[in-house]
Amino acid sequence: MKTIKGMKFETLINEIDIATRVKEMVKKIAEDSKGKEIFVIGILKGSFVFLSDLLRLFYVHNIHPSLDFITVESYGSGKISSGKLKMLRDITTDIENKWVLIVDDILDTGRTLAFAKEYFQKKNPAYIKTCVFLDKPERRVNEFKADYVGFEIPDKFVVGYGMDYDNLFRELPYVAVILDEEK
Ligand code: IMP
Ligand code: MG
């Protein structure tokens, strides 16, 4: 257990297990995309650490993709999310006939990736694949399934490896669960 900024963290997935799994994922992606023109779309902000690991391993497999980022935001007022999403930052390049890989940190309700996939499907890519580091299947509100999943985890809020709590703790090199704060 580790305490940072007065909060207690317990490691759920350590750095070694992350590195091993990400390597396996890239091997599979390399096989599936062999000979294709690859375009990677990262969903900000949470995907950036996972994506940077993926990218450097792509190099090892001789994959040289184009890369861009999007920001997806839910809109509507009030604290309870309406579940409606909009593209706040879009890509600026054409993806027609490309092998597109959309990358996010975690698949939770499934709304973000379902929205992003549908959005980019309309731009006529040759293939559209989705890749997440973590998946919380219990939380799904739709039927969404990602093509590449690092780890399935239980319905717990996690931070680290790019994922945040209130925009903090993205820098942890492992995935951790925040233990209940003692009041
Ligand atoms: P979805 O649309 O509910 O699938 O939302 C996925 C997004 O919610 C991810 O990109 C994360 O930014 C965020 N998210 C969901 N669960 C967690 C978590 O446990 N920790 C940090 N962020 C999370
Ligand atoms: Mg996110």
Describe the structure.
The structure is a single chain. The chain is α/β, with parallel strands linked by helices and 183 residues long. Helix content is 23%, strand content 33%. It has 3 helices and 10 strands; from the N terminus they run ββαβαβββαββββ. The strands form 2 sheets. Strands 5-4-3-6-7-8 form a 6-stranded mixed β-sheet. A 4-stranded antiparallel β-sheet has the order 1-2-10-9. α3 (111-121) links the parallel β6 (99-107) and β7 (127-135). 30% of the residues are buried. The model has no long low-confidence stretch (mean pLDDT 94). The structure holds inosinic acid and magnesium ion (MG). Magnesium ion (MG) binds at residues 43, 46, 104-105.
Draw up the topology in text:
Blueprint (H helix, E strand, L loop, with lengths): L1 E3 L2 E7 L1 H18 L5 E7 L3 H13 L5 E9 L10 E5 L9 E9 L3 H11 L5 E9 L12 E5 L5 E2 L15 E4 L5
Parallel strand pairs: 3-4, 3-6, 6-7, 7-8
Antiparallel strand pairs: 1-2, 2-10, 4-5, 9-10
Helix pairs in contact: 1-2
Summarize the structure.
By secondary structure, this protein is of the alpha/beta class.
The rough form would be described as globular
The biggest beta sheet is recorded as: 6 strands, mixed
Number of helices: 3
Q: What oligomeric state do these chains adopt?
A: single chain
Number of strands: 10
Strand order of the largest sheet: 5-4-3-6-7-8
Q: Determine Rg (CA atoms, Å).
A: 17 Å
CATH topology: Rossmann fold
**CATH architectural name:** 3-Layer(aba) Sandwich
| Structural class label | alpha/beta
**Percent of residues in helices:** 10-25%
N- to C-terminal distance = 18 Å
Spans of at least 5 consecutive residues with low confidence: none
Mean pLDDT across all residues, rounded? 94
CATH class: Alpha Beta
Number of domains: 1
Order of helices and strands: EEHEHEEEHEEEE
Share of β-strand residues: 25-35%
